[in-house]
Structures are given as C-alpha cells and as structure tokens.
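Lab channel / #folding
Pinned by the channel admin:
"Please post every new chain as: sequence first, then the structure tokens as a reply. Keep commentary short and put observations after the output so the thread stays searchable."

First post following the new format, from NK:
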Amino acid sequence: MPPSARTPTEKVASYVQRVAGLLDSHPRVDAFVVPELVSENHNGEPHYRSGDLRKFASEVTRTSGCEAILNKVVAHLRSIGELEGWCRSVLAEGIHNVMFIGGTSRYIPYPGPSVATANAAVLDFFRGHAGSIGNVVIPHREHEGYRMLTKTRSGASFFTTQILFEPQQIAELLREYGRLCWAYEVEPASVLLSVAPVADEDDLDFVRWLGAEIPERIERSLVSEDGSASIESAVATWRAVVRSVQARDVHVPLGVNVEVVSPRHFSVAVNLLSTMEQELDAGVEAR
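Reply from TO:
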C-alpha cells in the first residue's frame, strides 16, 4: 500500500525504509508492486488518492535494489501522447516495469486507450530498458481467456489476478488461456496469483472495493485477529490451482503476488509472504 497524497514527507521516508528493509530480508521477492489508488465519479473522472508513486517506487528500488512495478489506469489518460509522456517520466526514475489497468465500468466512454492498445503503443519503450508490461486478470469475467490472449499478443509478459479466495475460476481460466496460446502459437505470459491477508471487516470491505469476489461460504471464516485464517485460505487456494495445472498439463508459468490491503496489518502480510515463499520453494517455479 503506497503513501497517500497527504502523507507527511517524514512518514514517507520512514515507509520507504520499512518496505526496503522487508525486501532485503526476503530475497525470494523478484519485484514489488506500487498500486495507483484512484476512485471515479459517475462520469468515470478520476480522483487520485495516492501521492507521487514514481518517486516512492524509485526510492524503494534505490534503497533495496529490488525492481519496482508501477501501476497505471490508462483509461483515465487523454491520449497516447499522454501515455508516452508518463512512460518517459517513469523510465527517467529508473522504473522499468509497469502494469496497465482499464476503467472500472464497461458503460463509461473513457478517454484513454484500451489496455491492449496501451501495451502495443509503448512496448518498445520498456523493451529498450529490459523492462516489462503487465496487465490484470479478472477470473470471473466472461471471455477473459481471449482478453488475456489479446493482451499477450500486444505485449503483456505477465498478469496479476484479482485477490483470490477460491481456486476453481482461476484454474479453469488458466486451462483456457493455455489452450488458446497453444492454438495461436503464442508464448503464454506468466500469471501471478494474488493473495492477501484479511484480519477484520474493514479488510473485507476494501477487498470487495478492489473488485475481488469472496464466496459467502468462506467469507466469515476468513476474519481472524491475527490473519491466520486468511493465510490458510491463501495457501489452500495456491495448492489447489497448482494441482489443477499439473494434472491438466497446463503450460502457463505461475507465480505469487502478495498484497497488503491495510498498513494496519503489515506484519500479517509479512507472515503471508514468508508462508508463500515456503510454498514456492517446495516445488513450484515462479517467474
């Protein structure tokens, strides 16, 4: 979770040190994601809640040596030229990896490019710096496998899912995506399964706001003061997806994205990160 636009400078510096220290103590982590916190009004116009993410990400990378992935909602940009300008500013800060995200509603005529169009427009920018472009996967969305294929062909080299609380939908989507990539002779992108600790009702509300689906049968069982129940759920989901992929011979590279949904539960997220590192070291290669 990045600092907000109102976070005092000294607190930002302290948070940079905290995140960098965490990354130093977990060398298994390949990169850290800095989300763009933005809400929309009924017309789809953005209200940015986060501060200067480029500076924050750059400082963490400089301090820790770990690569940053910077999120951007491209639907809110006014033109391809504005997108290119943003990408140049990101590269100037030493950030070589980005994740492009679309708007929240299919009914709003956003001014910016589609995610696939944005991928193709600036792919050479990041390839020239040995960087990468990622996109987001929504497992329950109709025809998502074809969307993934289109985005892969336009330049996406990795995907992160919405936060997962059950394995069935993402397992079926991975099967479909792998089949489509084989049929169209496209190298599949890596898919990072997103998990997050949930310790209270506020966490549940925020996860829903992020767009994740939480099955009713497990919703109440996730809440525990120390977050242990959600950690167990995350591990169970990961293992079930891995078993499905292996059983069906799906050739899609897998990895894990551990999200911090609340700074109040930073330590719980660290516990989840350590647990998922153990799962990866137990035999699943992440990319």
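NK: The chain has two domains: 1-135, 138-287.
TO: also worth noting, The two ends are 22 Å apart (CA to CA).
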